[in-house]
Amino acid sequence: CLAKKTSLTSDDSESLRAKRTCCTASAVQQVLFSRRLSESSEVKDVFFARQIQPAWNKFTGILGVLELAVFFDYGHMHSARQLELLALQTAGIIIYLISFAWLMSVDAYLLKNFVRDYESKTPMRDGPYALVRHPRYTGLVGTRLAFPLLVPSVLSWLLAVCWLLLIRQRMQLEEEYLSRIFGAAYDGYMAGTPRLFPAIKL
């Protein structure tokens, strides 16, 4: 019995370690993307829309720190033990991998085209932006929804709700800003392109 218990504990530890690696990959990817986007602080300010929501980095930083506490809850407190199901965690892995792959493809497109479109003063409409208005947030929403499925706890689900509310507010602010900058060109783009998911206008 002791040997069996030790084995289970080891398996749980390996599983938790794998989930930590999976869930921190997005943060690392975002840091690398920011560094590769441009050396110009002006370009980065425009891309991350820091002028319309200066507190964005503070909010996301707080949520990121709180996500670390989720691993303690999941590993020791088990506040949502009834949701620790293989089917849900498998769904979480699938959603996470698809979202992360989508996010990387969007970032690859942006690294190639954002500075060019910024310098030409035209809104982005091609590539992933032909499908949805906020393709990066599509990937971010997917990874944030996958997180509580992978690491179920009361706190992880509360954080997921916070992320969704924050992203929704962020999209609204960005659209108001872009509408002021580009006028009818962006308004027409908004009217014909879903916000977050293809064929779903939120």
Question: Can you walk through the features of this model?
Answer:
This protein has 202 residues and is mainly α. The chain contains seven helices and no strands. The protein has helices spanning 2-37, 41-47, 56-77, 86-120, 135-150, 154-182, 184-192. Residues 1-8 have low confidence and may be disordered.
Approximately what portion of the residues adopt beta-strand conformation? under 5%
Class of secondary structure makeup: mainly alpha
Helix content: over 70%
Calculate the terminal CA-CA distance, rounded to whole Å. Answer: 53 Å
Q: Which segments are poorly predicted (pLDDT under 50) over 5 or more consecutive residues?
A: 1-8
Instruction: Give the oligomeric state of the chains in this entry, treating copies of one chain as homo and distinct chains as hetero.
Output: single chain
Write the topology of this structure:
Elements: H1 2-37, H2 41-47, H3 56-77, H4 86-120, H5 135-150, H6 154-182, H7 184-192
Helix pairs in contact: 1-4, 3-6, 4-5, 5-6, 6-7
In summary, what is this structure?
The protein is an all-alpha fold and 202 residues long. It has helices spanning 2-37, 41-47, 56-77, 86-120, 135-150, 154-182, 184-192.
Keywords for this structure?
mainly alpha; 7 helices; 202 residues; single chain; disordered N terminus
